[in-house]
Design goal:
The complex is a heterotrimer of chains A (297), B (306) and C (364). Chain B has helices at 22-27, 29-49, 66-71, 75-106, 113-125, 128-138, 145-151, 168-193, 197-205, 210-221, 223-238, 242-247, 259-268, 273-305. Chain B is mainly alpha-helical. Chain C is elongated. Classes of the chains: A mainly alpha (297), B mainly alpha (306), C alpha+beta (364).
């Protein structure tokens, strides 16, 4: 072939497997393995019987699939004297999660709305303190809160923990809602005022119906956050009422008895199922939630 | 005149300043209470009692710096601080580098971006407890990665950080980075997507290589995003607790202790409240060391520019 | 029309507005007649929108009083003032239908349903939006949205309409169409309308009177023709007219304007105050008042200029010319055949000029 016949003409030939592309996808695949490995190993281990686990091939799929570890983790695994499995912790977590999420989102959304549209003298000062509070290590506030809860008669119960989650969810949620409401054109708010709507009517009739996405983001944020909490659960509830995450740690890291790795992995996956499911279903909204929470506006 | 619209009684007096915006003030009450009672009140309370001799119960009868002097003589505390420093510095570097690298890879208009993003971010949805337990299992010398690679014929291969006091913090680091980089990637990716397409076009017309464009143009433009990521990682590091509890319970021995664990044990196990208060006050101080320069750069700078 | 006998609709008395220590509006007085179309005109940041928000009650004023329809409304809520307002971004409630948008305010005021229905039908008929009533705003075009926004003010059945740059978000053609419609609406309803804009064409075409604002103050309040022909000061002269007025610095000596470029006898100019000899002044000549071609000879005085640049615009041609280093913009007929470098004979008309004192910048 002569060089002349290869004179550029028409579309440039595309090389699907160019060196850069192979490197790019190769790197991505390799990193993906690192990220997926724990999940893969957990699932595989949880589907094996203990004899097979002891063979040590944790990466290999089970020769004989069994769901017994899952059943055992859910209904028989022991923490201390209770041997009714993770189900107890699951229902505790549900009872903590629902009121905490509802309460914190209600309070923070109204609060964010007030900050965005009804600024009053000092409102920004309190908001700044609230935001700085998000960076204070929890450890420094833990003990005085124990005292406060004891005074209120809420220490050790679920309602105390609900209150704690509401308080510590406030900075991020208030920021989220404030920024969202501040992004709604101010003229809409003015129009509603000319139309004679007050604080609550504007909130419920004008803003709420157009804010569904941000509420979904807030629900995702709070659900994963509260479900994954360990510290507050340990401190502010009694062992009977421990949330699932705390119970999981106690089951897996208990020093008594023979370690049943397959049951432990099943328990871990059961506990992770809720946030993982939320993550997979919500997709982009989850990303938006953490981005909105993370990048201050 | 608009007779049909509601006619209120004419106001003869200016409405009171306090009643003005009353609903908004009521709605902000939870925020005000949280900010003042919890964030300011509880913090000040703890700092105050860290100068006392409180043991089982808060007791403000004596004041001294004794708790702090004692704290800094404790081997456990010193190990905790060292661990935090190593873990903090390395997780900062790894999170930023890997996070940016992943974001840059995903920003190359690749196929299956959504799938890769899902894979890199899913650990962030999981708790530190789950992260710790999963990696505890993977790093188990008898069953985990080490055993499997040895089974392949590489007999001398060793990956057993969790039972080695010198390496245990790196074992925790692997897990921590696995959990947290997805978030940093997301923030970086959002930053990269926010950069004007025309910048890339201009760099292409100027014949600047992709890598050079990232290093010389894109990264400097992403400065605010990097700072945000930095602050987020730092704020997370100081709270590191759950991960260590799940993965090693602070062991072997005292080798993977962290400050948060020290605080917790002193307050709730050892009945040595004031010591726990002093340790938590030190945690606050270290956060302030990170936060104040950032706040100054971020907000102080803006005021001058105005 | 003798406006003195018509009662005032909106009265602004010594109004002041402060944000902290920063004074935005100060001692502002403005009386607007019943049925008048008043335009607040100015560049961005001049305080025109702020003033409108004060009238609406969306901003709380720091000093002074506001009267609407003979009632002191200074401390009333926006909805209690008997006003309707139309916004630049339309500000329609996105989740409500057009009907919902129109009825929201009336429902809040507890107007009976039958009455609401009647008013919506009337407004829809006036604005030709009957077919859109059940649609959501997202399904409407920009022009339709703004019509609905006007409708929202219309159903309130009020005497005063406030418009905050209502046409700025529309494209050029729609803007012209809707401008005509707003004028027609005003003729039909005879309401008081206060209209904020930065567009001088809108101001000139719509207004009974224009208030030109700058830095929170009213620079001139007058009918459009008066503002165009007899600007009260340099700022107004420069602001109104496109391309803007030519300004030539010089001196007055015995009623004759002297500048390095040319002299002009001002005996036909109607001075407000008699100027002193040797006074430093600025002569203002509108580009369209400089005659050229065959008409140049009809003017009282001629000069010759060299053409630097020609901008043909179809309906007319803009010529950038020079007389002895003095730059002049001249508007010529669109069919004029001129090219850069040519010499051009121009006619000046002192009776249509404006003369300002150079230091006080006020019209003489």
């Amino acid at each position: 072939m002569h060089a002349e016949t290869l004179e550029p003409h028409g579309p440039k030939p595309k090389r699907h497997f160019s060196r850069t592309n192979i490197m790019l996808y190769g790197t991505l695949l390799l990193i993906s393995i690192y990220y997926l490995m724990p999940l893969w190993v957990m699932v595989m281990t949880s589907l094996k019987g203990m004899p097979e686990v002891r063979l040590g091939h944790i990466f290999a799929p089970p020769i004989e699939v069994t769901f017994e570890p899952w059943v055992k983790a859910w209904s028989q695994a022991c923490t201390g004297i209770n041997c009714d499995g993770l189900s107890r912790g699951f229902w505790n977590s549900v009872q903590i999660l629902i009121p905490s999420a509802v309460l914190s989102i209600m309070v923070a959304s109204v609060n964010g709305y007030a900050l965005a549209n009804w600024k009053f003298k000092g409102s920004e000062v309190f908001f700044t303190i609230l935001m700085l509070g998000a960076f204070i290590p929890y450890q420094i506030m833990i003990y005085p809160i124990v005292i406060l809860l004891r005074e209120l008669g809420l220490y050790g119960g679920l309602s105390g923990l609900v209150l704690v989650h509401t308080i510590f969810g406030m900075p991020i949620l208030t920021l989220l809602f404030r920024n969202y409401f501040a992004g709604i054109p101010e003229e809409l708010f003015k129009a509603a005022r000319v139309d004679g709507a007050g604080f609550w009517r504007i909130y419920f009739r004008v803003l709420l119906p157009m804010s569904l996405p941000i509420f979904v983001v807030a629900i995702i944020l709070q659900t994963t956050g509260i479900w994954n909490d360990f510290l507050f659960g340990v401190i502010y509830t009694k062992p009977d009422l421990y949330p699932m995450t705390v119970q999981l740690n106690n089951i897996v890291n208990s020093v008594q008895g023979v370690k049943e790795y397959n049951v432990n992995m099943a328990a871990t996956l059961l506990t992770g199922a809720v946030p993982l499911l939320i993550y997979l279903v919500s997709g982009k909204l989850f990303v938006r939630g953490i981005a909105a929470g993370a990048v201050k506006g | 005149m608009s007779d049909s619209l509601q006619q209120p009684a004419p106001l003869t007096q200016r409405p009171s300043r306090w009643l003005h915006n009353l609903s908004a003030k009521l709605a902000s009450l939870p925020m005000v209470l949280t900010a003042l009672v919890v964030f300011v009140g509880c913090t000040v309370w703890t700092v105050f009692y860290s100068f006392t001799n409180s043991r089982l119960l808060p007791d403000a009868s004596k004041f001294s710096l004794k708790q702090y002097e004692y704290l800094w003589t404790q081997r456990r505390w010193l190990i905790s601080i060292e661990n935090l420093a190593v873990y903090g510095a390395l997780s900062l570097i790894f999170s930023l580098v890997i996070g940016f690298f992943l974001a840059a890879l995903l920003d190359r208009k690749i196929r299956g971006e959504a799938i890769f993003r899902t894979i890199f971010l899913y650990p962030f949805a999981l708790s530190f407890i789950i992260t710790g337990l999963a990696w505890q299992w993977l790093l188990n010398p008898d069953f985990g990665i080490q055993a499997n690679i040895r089974a392949l014929g590489w007999e001398s291969f060793s990956l057993d950080p969790l039972n080695n006091p010198d390496l245990v913090i790196y074992g925790i680091l692997i897990a921590g980075v696995w959990q947290g980089t997805g978030l940093i990637m997301c923030i970086m990716l959002a930053g990269l997507r926010g950069i004007d397409e025309d910048i890339w076009k201009a760099a292409r017309v100027d014949g600047i290589s992709t890598v050079k464009t990232y290093l010389k143009i894109i990264i400097p433009m992403l400065r605010p995003v990097f700072i945000t990521a930095l602050v987020l990682i730092s704020a997370g590091i100081i709270k590191v607790y759950d991960l260590v509890v799940a993965q090693t319970s602070g062991g072997p021995g005292l080798s993977s202790q962290v400050p948060a664990m020290y605080v917790f044990d002193k307050m709730f196990k050892d009945q040595n409240l004031a010591q726990g208060f002093a340790a938590s006050t030190m945690m606050l101080v270290s956060v302030m060391i990170v936060l104040i320069p950032w706040a100054y750069l971020e907000f102080g700078g803006k005021k001058h520019a105005r | 029309m003798d406006k003195q006998n018509i009662p005032y609709s909106v009265q602004i008395k010594a109004l002041g507005l402060k944000f902290g220590e920063h004074k935005v509006l100060e001692d502002l007085n403005l009386d607007i007649h019943q049925g008048e179309f008043l335009v607040l005109l100015g560049s961005s940041g001049c305080g025109k929108s702020t003033l409108l928000n004060c009238i609406a009650g969306l901003l709380e004023i720091s000093e002074g009083q506001l009267w609407i329809q003979g009632k002191n409304v200074t401390w009333l809520e926006p909805s209690e003032r008997g006003i309707g307002m139309v916004f630049q971004s339309y500000a329609l409630y996105p989740q409500m239908t057009v009907r919902g948008n129109l009825s929201f305010g009336l429902k809040n005021a507890k107007v009976p349903p039958a009455e609401i229905k009647k008013r919506i039908e009337r407004a829809a008929e006036i604005l030709q939006i009957q077919a859109l009533l059940e649609r959501k705003p997202a399904a409407l075009s920009g022009g339709q949205r703004q019509r609905v926004a006007i409708g929202r003010a219309l159903v309130r059945d009020v005497d005063v309409f406030l418009f905050d740059e209502p046409l700025s978000n529309l494209d050029a053609k729609l803007r012209t169409d809707l401008r005509v419609e707003i004028k027609r609406l005003h003729q039909q309803l005879q309401n008081t309308m206060i209209y904020v804009t930065h567009d001088q064409i809108e101001a000139m075409t719509l207004a009974d009177r224009i208030a030109i604002m700058r830095g929170g103050k009213i620079m001139q309040l007058a009918a459009p023709a008066e503002i165009y022909n007899r600007p009260k000061n340099l700022y107004v002269a420069d602001f109104i007219g496109s391309p803007s007025m030519n300004f030539i610095e010089g001196e007055l000596q015995n009623g004759v304007f002297h500048s390095p470029a040319f002299t002009l006898n001002l005996q036909d100019y109607a001075f407000i105050t008699s100027p002193s000899s040797g006074q430093k002044v600025v002569l203002g000549l509108r580009p369209e008042h400089i005659l050229s071609g065959t008409q140049a000879a009809t003017a009282s005085q001629q000069i010759t200029a060299r053409i630097d640049l020609v901008e043909p615009m179809g309906s007319d041609t803009l010529v950038y010319a020079q007389v002895q280093g003095q730059k002049l913009r001249v508007r010529m007929d669109g069919q004029a055949q001129v090219t850069a470098g040519e010499m051009l004979s121009l006619g000046l008309q002192p009776e249509r000029a404006s003369v300002f004192d150079r230091s006080s910048e006020q019209r003489l």
